[in-house]
């Protein structure tokens, strides 16, 4: 699966042409080429690598999976790795789609490790924002990174909503402890996965704005700075959510401890109340004569003593807030 586009002087001239024609377009002054490959092998990249002078190590990284987000610079081009993120409602883990990008002075090559990365959404952004098209590769790279970072931000916002729901559940009158634990651990896993792919992006975008790469000039720098600001906000928001989730977990444990102490306080108080009639009946059950022994009056006296002492203890404990 291959997609190609050729821009000349900021205008889309042709698309979906064969890869061998890339060198013909690059021979024309003022032309910028975009090539997209989905699940290619090293052999598939070999011809294009020869035409564009791509480094062998960068080609190997483009084919191998699970690369960390990074920016490597080689002689004549740069190599970037990033991840798009999609977090479905109720999903157990965020779906991540790896993308490798070769950045040359007049060509941008994207290598998708699978078809989950929505490249059509990127092309729509390019078609809707043509004010930067005249800058060539920076225009293409900005639209691509803007789509990736927006996906990170959307995932963070969705996880933020889930953390708020979890915070509300903690203070329910009768919280479901098992459900709280399950959701909190699932959120922590999701935040960890998102942190792994979104955390390095601000440094990557910052490196792209270095003068030696010649991507961020007076025209494009504000746009790259906007992407960098959004990427930094997303990374910081992830860290803030991790701290909030830790606070939620600590609050949950503290509330459980408070509830347990309250229950123990009530049980102990009632045990003390019940101990009084137990002591009275035990005393009257002794095998020695005592006032009222063997008479109806003795029974009523012992009953009255139990009631008075029990009510007195209950009133005392209630006054001290022990019950």
Summarize the structure.
The protein is 58% helix and 15% strand. The protein has 9 helices and 7 strands; from the N terminus they run E-E-H-E-H-H-E-E-E-E-H-H-H-H-H-H. The chain is rod-shaped.
Helix content: 55-70%
Oligomeric composition of the shown chains: single chain
Shape: rod-shaped
Structural Rg: 35 Å
Number of helices: 9
Average pLDDT, to the nearest integer? 88
Order of helices and strands: EEHEHHEEEEHHHHHH
Largest sheet: 7 strands, mixed
Question: What is the second-level CATH architecture of the largest domain?
Answer: 2-Layer Sandwich
Q: What's the count of strands?
A: 7
Spell out the CATH superfamily of the largest domain: CorA soluble domain-like
Question: Class of the largest domain in CATH?
Answer: Alpha Beta
Briefly note the structural class of the backbone.
alpha+beta
CATH fold assignment of the largest domain: Beta Polymerase, domain 2
Total domain modules:
2
Into which percentage range does the β-strand content fall?
A: 15-25%
Question: What attributes characterize this protein structure?
Answer:
single chain, 323 residues, alpha+beta, Beta Polymerase, domain 2, 2 domains, 7-stranded mixed β-sheet, 7 strands, cobalt ion transmembrane transporter activity, transport, Magnesium transporter
Structure description:
The protein has nine helices and seven strands, in the order E-E-H-E-H-H-E-E-E-E-H-H-H-H-H-H. By secondary structure, the protein is α+β, with helices and mostly antiparallel strands. The chain has two domains: about 1-255, Beta Polymerase, domain 2 (2-Layer Sandwich), CATH 3.30.460.20; about 265-320, no CATH class. A seven-stranded mixed beta sheet has the order 2-1-3-7-6-5-4, sandwiched between helices. It is rod-shaped and about 120 Å long. The mean pLDDT is about 90. One of its GO terms (cellular component) is plasma membrane. Its main location: membrane. It is a multi-pass membrane protein. InterPro entries: CorA_cytoplasmic_dom, CorA_TM1_TM2, MgTranspt_CorA/ZnTranspt_ZntB.
């Amino acid at each position: 699966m291959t997609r190609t586009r050729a821009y000349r002087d900021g205008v889309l001239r042709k698309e979906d042409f064969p890869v061998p024609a890339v060198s013909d377009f690059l021979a024309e002054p003022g032309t910028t080429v975009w090539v997209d490959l989905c699940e290619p092998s090293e052999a598939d990249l070999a011809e294009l690598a020869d035409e564009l002078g791509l480094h062998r190590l960068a080609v190997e990284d483009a084919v191998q999976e699970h690369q960390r987000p990074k920016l490597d610079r080689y002689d004549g081009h740069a190599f970037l790795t990033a991840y798009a993120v999609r977090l479905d409602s109720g999903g157990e883990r965020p779906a991540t789609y790896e993308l490798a990008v070769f950045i040359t002075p007049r060509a941008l090559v994207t290598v998708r490790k699978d078809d989950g990365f929505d490249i059509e959404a990127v092309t729509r952004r390019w078609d809707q924002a043509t004010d930067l098209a005249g800058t060539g590769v920076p225009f293409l790279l900005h639209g691509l990174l803007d789509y990736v970072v927006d996906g990170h931000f959307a995932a963070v916002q969705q996880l933020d909503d889930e953390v708020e729901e979890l915070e509300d559940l903690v203070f329910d009158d009768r919280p479901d402890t098992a459900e709280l634990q399950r959701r909190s651990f699932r959120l922590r896993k999701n935040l960890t996965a998102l942190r792994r792919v979104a955390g390095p992006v601000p440094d990557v975008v910052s490196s792209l704005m270095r003068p030696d790469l010649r991507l961020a000039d007076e025209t494009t720098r504000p746009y790259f700075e906007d992407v960098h600001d959004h990427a930094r906000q997303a990374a910081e928001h992830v860290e803030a959510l991790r701290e909030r989730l830790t606070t939620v977990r600590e609050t949950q444990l503290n509330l459980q401890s408070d509830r347990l102490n309250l229950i123990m306080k009530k049980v102990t108080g009632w045990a003390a109340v019940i101990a009084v009639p137990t002591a009275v009946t035990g005393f009257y059950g002794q095998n020695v004569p005592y006032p009222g022994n063997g008479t109806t009056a003795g029974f009523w006296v012992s009953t009255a003593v139990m009631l008075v002492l029990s009510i007195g203890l209950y009133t005392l404990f209630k006054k001290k807030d022990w019950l």
